[in-house]
Design goal:
The chain is of the alpha/beta class. About 35% of the residues lie in helices and about 15% in strands. The protein has a single domain, classed as Alpha/Beta hydrolase fold, catalytic domain (Rossmann fold).
């Protein structure tokens, strides 16, 4: 689980991220579920968080190619995750887009309180590769 916390939450996966992981573990008792809290200031911009999330996903895909990840975020963190899965070229301050076919390493995307949805519309409109993973 790679989760970006909400605005001004303390470092780590955040309140929603921790609750999501805690709820997921009993439903998948035979799977080892580790969590990574995206390293970013969680202040006003999601770009730094998106860059860190993308770097972590790419690193995990290289070092553990059979591992499938769940990406998630709450509020500003959801906007960061949104950038990772929807933006294929550097934009909006986000400089580290996922390379092609990286969606094979992502099992699901869980976005909570995603404010960018109201502005840009549903994520599946921008990233068809992730449409079935939302």
């Amino acid at each position: 689980m790679v989760f970006a916390r909400g605005r001004e939450e303390p470092p780590g996966p955040g309140y929603v991220g921790n609750a999501f992981v805690d709820a997921l573990r009993p439903k998948l008792p035979k799977m080892a579920i580790a969590s990574y809290g995206v390293d970013y200031p969680a202040d006003i911009s999601p770009a730094t968080g998106a860059d860190d999330m993308s770097a972590h996903v790419q690193s995990m895909a290289r070092s553990c190619p059979k591992t499938r990840m769940v990406l998630g975020g709450y509020s500003l963190g959801a906007a960061a995750a949104d950038l990772v899965v929807a933006v294929t070229k550097p934009a909006f301050g986000f400089t580290n887009p996922l390379p092609p076919a990286m969606d094979d390493h992502i099992a699901a995307v869980a976005l909570y309180g995603n404010g960018t949805r109201r502005i840009l519309g549903p994520l599946r409109n921008f990233s068809p590769a992730f449409a079935g993973k939302l």
